[in-house]
Design a protein that fits this description.
The protein has 236 residues and is mainly α. The chain has helices spanning 14-34, 39-66, 81-94, 104-118, 120-123, 134-155, 165-187, 212-215, 217-231.
Length: 236
Amino acid sequence: MTGEMTPLFVRWSLPHWAALGIVALAAGGLLWGCRRLRMESRLLVGKILGGVFLLTFLMETFGRIVREHWEPWQDRLPLHFCSLMTLVCFIALWFRTPWAFRTPWACAVAYFGVLTASVQGLITPMLHDGFPSAAFFAFFVGHGLLLISALYLPAVLQWRARPWDDMRALGLCDAYLVLIIPVNIWLDTNYGFTRYAPAGTVLEYFGSAPWYLLTLQIPALVLLRLLYLTVRVRKK
């Protein structure tokens, strides 16, 4: 389907609101239903979610690279923050026992990273093609699964954050930004939005690039601390 045949995506249009509503209903229904399962079944559902994540990540990455698209090839690489969050969520959901790298870090990064950064993708999507294009469905399914997985960890699998997990997650997210800056300069891309803020996003309210990456640290710290308080280990 060509760009001329596919409607452009419009934020806060009826398809956008409908997609948000479906994501909210799917998240609420899945979490409500899974909380009534035994822990063995909860772990199995989590692994299924993780498997779906890995499959959709591979399919979307392959599709973006090989198909004819309006974007240059440099912008189709799986280097967006949400792409990396997909892999992190897969690790957090699939590997529930200690292994070579252990998974508490993955649970923390998945929960804090998705609910502070990736969720912005649902609110202000960076989409070219609108409903009913494949890109539209792939975007909202992928970001909806991110939200569901981040909530699934504490709400269903009963994961709890250790002290300062929120700060460790912020440190890893900041490390991503630091590492992606030279990649953006080399490829002339904007992964992590380190070079400019997309129009209509919250980044526009925090100054010009790349300085908004610094000013964002303050509200990020506040939001992360609030999120931590909801999932911290309770003292008996």
